[in-house]
Design a protein that fits this description.
The chain has about 170 residues and is an alpha+beta fold. It has a single domain, classed as Aminopeptidase, CATH 3.40.630. About 30% of the residues lie in helices and about 35% in strands. The strands form two sheets. Strands 1-2-3-4-5 form a five-stranded antiparallel β-sheet, with helices on both faces. The protein has a three-stranded antiparallel β-sheet with strand order 6-8-7, covered by helices on one side. The protein is globular, with a radius of gyration of 15 Å. It starts with 6 loop residues before the first strand and ends with a strand. About 30% of the residues are buried.
């Protein structure tokens, strides 16, 4: 069994490292309609696709350039709710997150981002983080705004390989 090096606990959540056994949950969580609409490159149609991605993400924990993607688990049950991540973005880092549809509306994304943000900023020794989403993704925008991100751009931009109406945020310490 691998030694877990990264773990953040909140009142209701655990943010930790992926293990290969989580691929099935990653597959199921990726299939909801919001993920298909807003993050189509993070949809895994088969468990095998999810397993390959999880294996890759595990290798990234020990490299400097990321991406750094961590599952979000419900503390009470151990259910895999989704993930939080820091990925390289332009000249810095971008935060990302997804909570599976069946768990949304409970504040889990806001809670996960609030706990994850300072830990990762400290780990990477950075003082600002970006957040980018499709403008119509009001839930994602609310998570960023609830965590102190400030809107600095709204308009047409590249997103997931297409020109779309996007909102860009920044969080600075």
């Amino acid at each position: 069994m691998p030694v877990i090096m990264f773990k953040i606990e909140t009142e209701r959540l655990i943010i930790t490292e992926f293990t290969p056994e989580m691929a099935g949950d990653v597959h199921v969580n990726s299939l909801d309609e919001d993920n298909r609409r807003f993050m189509p490159d993070e949809v895994f149609e088969t468990v095998a696709e999810a397993k390959e991605t999880v294996a890759f993400l595990i290798t990234c924990y020990d490299v400097k350039g990321g991406p750094f993607v961590y599952p979000v688990l419900l503390k009470e049950t151990g259910d895999n709710l989704g993930y939080v991540q820091f990925v390289p973005y332009e000249a810095g880092w971008e935060i990302g997150y997804h909570i599976a549809k069946r768990y949304t509306g409970n504040g889990y994304a806001t809670e996960a981002v609030r706990a994850f943000l300072p830990v990762m900023m400290d780990k990477l020794r950075i003082d600002k983080v970006y957040g980018v989403c499709v403008t119509e993704n009001t839930a994602s925008r609310r998570v960023m705004e609830n965590n102190g991100f400030e809107l600095f751009y709204e308009g047409i931009g590249m997103y997931q390989g297409d020109e779309r109406e996007i909102s860009k945020y920044i969080f600075s310490v």
